[in-house]
Amino acid sequence: MNTNQVNTKEAIAKGETSLGIEFGSTRIKAVLIDNRFETIASGSYEWENRLENGFWTYNLVDIITGLQTAYSDMKQEVERNYGITIRTIGSIGFSAMMHGYMAFDKTGELLVPFRTWRNTTTTVAARELTDLFQFNVPERWSIAHLYQAILNEEKHLPRIDFITTLAGYIHWLLTGNKSIGIGDASGMFPIDETTGDYNASMVKQFDERIGDRDYPWELKDILPKVYTAGEQAGGLTEVGARILDRSRNLQPGIPFCPPEGDAGTGMVATNSVRKRTGNISVGTSVFAMIVLEKELSKVYPEIDLVTTPNGSPVAMVHANNCSSDINAWLGLFREFYEAMGQKVETDQLFGVMLNKALEADPDGGGLLSYGYFSGENITGLEEGRPLFVRSPESNFNLANFMRTHLFTAFGALKIGMDILTKGENVAIDGILAHGGLFKTPVVGQKIVAAAMNVPISVMDTAGEGGAWGIAILASYMINQDQNESLEDFLDNKVFENVDGKEIYPDELDIQGFEEFIERYKKGLAIEKTAVEHLVLPVENRRN
To answer: Which H, E and C letters describe 110-145, residue by residue?
Structure first.
C-alpha cells in the first residue's frame, strides 16, 4: 500500500470523510470523498420511474433498496481497496430530483404514491397559483401538486401531516428531522431571499385561497424547515444507521447537511453559486442556471426562479430538447459508414462530424432544423417533430448541416436566455458547461459561447456530478472556516487547483447565431404545421 493509500485509510478510520448520495432519474449514486475533496469510492443503483394510475412514480421499496445498494457498493469498494470497514463518516448529505409530491400522515404513512417532477397533471393548479402569487409556479413544483390535489378533492388531504421532496424524505428517514435545503425548498414553494424562508405573504395567500376547505392544517405546518448551506440539519439516528448500512457497522451520530435538489448540487459541482455566474447542463434536455444580482421585473412563464444552496436567487431556463436529434443523425452516418464496410469508434465519429461545424458558414448556410423529439414549452409546442428544412438557395454541405444541428440544439434555450440578457439586462461574467457534447474539445464551447454571448468554460470536475456536489456541501458544513461563504469555500479550496478551459465568443459566430435564431423563430410555423399534420399513433407520442 503506497503513502497516499495509507493516508486515505487513516482518513477513513478517523471519519475525515464526507458522503454524498444523489437520487437521479435513472441512477442512485453514492460518493465518498476525503478532506481534499477527491473521490475515495463510489457505488450506484440503476432504477426507472413507472407510470402507475396516471402518475409517474418510484415506489418506496425501490427507494430504500437503491439507497442501501449504492451505500453497500461504495462500502465494499472501500474494503477492497483499503482493507478497512467504514464505521463512521465525517458528514453526510442527500440530494435528489427536485420538485414532486410526497405526503405523509402523523404515523409516517405515505398517503399517495410519490408523484415525481415528470408529471404534467397540475396544469390548472400551476396557472392559478401563478396568477395568485404573480410568480411563476411550474407544473412540477410541490405546491402545484398539493393545490391540484385540492382542486381534485382528493381524499387523503385531511390526513396530511407533512409534505416533502424525495431528498427531504430520505433525510427525514435517517435523521428524524423534517428538514430541507433552501435550493430544494425553492422547488416546493417560492422563497423570500431576505428571510431565507418560504415567502410569508404567499403562504398567507395560499391559506386564504383554501380557507373554505376546513383542512386541519395550515401550509407552514406541513412544509419542511428550511436550512441553508453550511448549517447542520440533523444527525444519523440508530434507526437511520440500520437502514443505511445493512451490515450494522455504521455508527449513529454523524452530522447531516441540509438535503438538496439536483439543480443545487449541479451548481456546486460546477462552481456556479456566485452571483453573475451560471452553468449549462447539456444532454437529452438542456438547462441553464444563472445566479441573479437582482429580481426580475416581471413574471415569465419561460423562466423558473429557484435558489442556490446558500439562498441566492437563480433564474432557470429549461428546454426539453437538445442532443437527441444530433445523436440520431450521427447514428445514420454510422450506418452509412458501416454499409461501406468500415468500422468507426463513437468518439471518432462525433469528433470528426462535430469539427466539420467549424468549417461552416457563420449562420449555417441558410439551413434550418428542429430537434423536437417532444414538445417545447419555451416555443409553445405540446408535441414535437424532428425536422430539417432548406431552400434551393441554401448552401447545403456537411459543415453547414452539422453547424445547423448544433445551433438548433440551443435554439429554444437561446430564446429563454435572451429574455434574461436582452429583456432584463442580466449580467453574466461566465458560464460553466457540462455534458457529453463537450467531450469533443472546442466545438461545443464555441457554439454555446456564440448562443449565450458570454465566455464558456469546461472544467475537469464537470463530469463528477451531483453526488460529488452534495458530498462537497456535506464537507463544507464541517470544514468551513468561520464566516466563510460557500462561494469562497469553492473558489479557494475545492476548485483552487482545478484546470478549466475557457472560450470567449467569436464575433462572427455571434452574428451567425443571431441570423440563425431569427430564421429559427420564423420557421416555428413550419414545425407547428408538422405537428398538426404529421399525426403520430397515440402509443408513439412522447411526453
So the answer is: ECCCCECCCCCCCHHHHHHHHHHHCCCCCCCCHHHH
